[in-house]
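Re: the 427-residue chain
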Amino acid sequence: MPILDLAALLVCVTAALAFMNARFLKLPASIGVTVGGLIVSLLVLLLASFHLPAADATVILLRGIEFDDFLFQGVLSFLLFAGALGVNTHSLWALRGPVLTFALLSTAISIGVVGAGTFALLNLLGFDIPLVYGLLFGALISPTDPVAVLGMLKQARVPRKIETLVAGESLFNDGVGVVAFAVLAGIAAASGGHGHGPELSALGVLGFFMQEAVGGLLLGGVVGYLGYLALKAVDDFVTEVLLTLGVVLALTAVASHLHVSAPLAAVAAGLLMGSLTDRRPAALSSREKFDSFWHLTDELLNIFLFALLALEIVVVRFSGPSLLAGLLAIGLVLLARTVSVYLPALLLDRRHDFSPYTRRLMIWGGLRGAISVALAFTVPAGPARDLFLVMTYVVVVFSIIVQGLTVGRLAGRAGAALPESEPGGGH
């Protein structure tokens, strides 16, 4: 199908799902289009089981979409850049210790717990999966996706420090999780995927991680600062928007050539440009219009991404054992999230008073989303990829629908129990 026809079809389907949600379901937009997309996907799969030509053609069309390329080669950078622009950098800097601790230590703990648990669980169920592949699943499922949660946190008027902590941790652990996945994928490839053969040295793994992570942050800082200098030199809203769009696209393209992390580069550029323009409001002709543009861009891309995420379920090959593994993985992922939040909180409690609501929001509000699915698509073709796709989809659907629809109540309780004026704001 020509690219124009494909784009028109997907946008129209997404618009129809958003309309049905706004008219009837009245759920948060990202959750509503996910539910609608899942219903459409299940209907297509049902019709395809009867070998109806239209349903078969739809399945073939969706299987031709490279979901991981769509996410990692553009959309993710825009989403992270927009999210970073909206973060209060002063609050984030005040919480830099907890944010980085949770982004690094929590992600590492989660990868270890999920990886070891997945290895034991799958071998108990009869799947011959090496430990490195269990850790690979841990890396792809550990990054959290706070997009659907942040709006609810703001509506519930949660103390700013809780909101900043949840947003900052998730912005950075997206990039850390992607880098960790790349490292583990390299180890799996070096060992032939069977846990045998030559392995990457500890120094080599550390060097790769530093190149991806530190290189991405430096690239984002350089490109973001150049973008800020360009914004200062003009006084035209349209030009300012074009400049920021160019910043995101440029750092994404350059990151792929330099083999550094584009997600972390986007976060660094967004934080730097947001901070500098906050300090010097004259750098933007209209801060309100600028923020509105990026907020709208963020919302539209997220709705489209969640709709495509739901539609791509037709690509997954389900089976009874893989569904059982996915259902068991839900509990494993929640357990890992609990451990990975509580352990760093214990280390940080000496300097930061983490209230029970802070920890609960971080655990239940740690939604999994499109990043996990896209990473699952990049696992080498074979039994492990088919199994991980099913497990990932089961965890992600539970996370978006069940956690996404209930975290607002928890956020409301936190907002009522922890007024903004409380010293420390719950931290």
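The chain has 17 helices and no strands.
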